[in-house]
Amino acid sequence: MEATSLVGTRLTDALRRNRGWLLTSGVLAVIAGAAAIAVPAVASVTIEIFIGWLLIASSGALAVDALAVREAGRMVLRLLLAVVTFAAGLYLVLAPLEGTFTLTVMLVIWFIALGVARIAAGVADRDTPGGGYTILSGVVSVILGVLVGVELPSSAAWAIGLLVGVDFLFYGLSAIALFLQLRGGREETAVGPADRPAGGAPA
User: Which residues, including other chains, have CB under 8 Å from residue 128's CB and lie 6 or more apart?
Assistant: First the structure.
């Protein structure tokens, strides 16, 4: 019990020291999330093209890794993986609308899994600041994933932008709320016995 309390205290102190970055990331996430929700179709295509370029870049790294392997069998397998990754990335870049359905299905699965993981993490950290926000964020992720999954395939055109937008928006609001909670806690801590009137009674 004491070890758990010590870990929670250290985590709280670390969050309090970096609360400025927490606020910055929260504000940026809110802006990005609001933009994605406002134009989900455009955001969906943009995200898909971005993922395509990431896959293309990853294929280059995989190819370099394959060439560094001396054994022929492993080299061929890794080169094949690099080629498949490059082909998938090129497909998303050249025809983003065609790959929207597949990417949406993957995103729905990822959202539900992410939501469950967030709920578990929030329960484990329920005694630290932000634990409740993490649980709530996980519940929202699971609900959104299920709702979009039920609406497939009609939801594929706008779901990517909406899911990512809502997740960004919720993370941003949670980060800002956590920042305010940490700042309030610091102000309460700053008012110690030395700041009270002599005798321990209010003036």
Answer: 8, 11, 12, 15
- Residues 6 and 12: their CA atoms lie apart, in Å, by 10
Query: Which residues are within 8 A (CB) of 23 and not within 5 positions of it... i.e. 6 or more apart?
Result: 175, 176, 179
- Please list, in sequence order, all residues whose beta carbon lies within 8 angstroms of the beta carbon of residue 183, skipping any fewer than 6 positions away: 19
In tens, the pLDDT along 170-198 reads 888 888 887 887 776 554 444 454 454 55
pTM across the whole model: 0.59
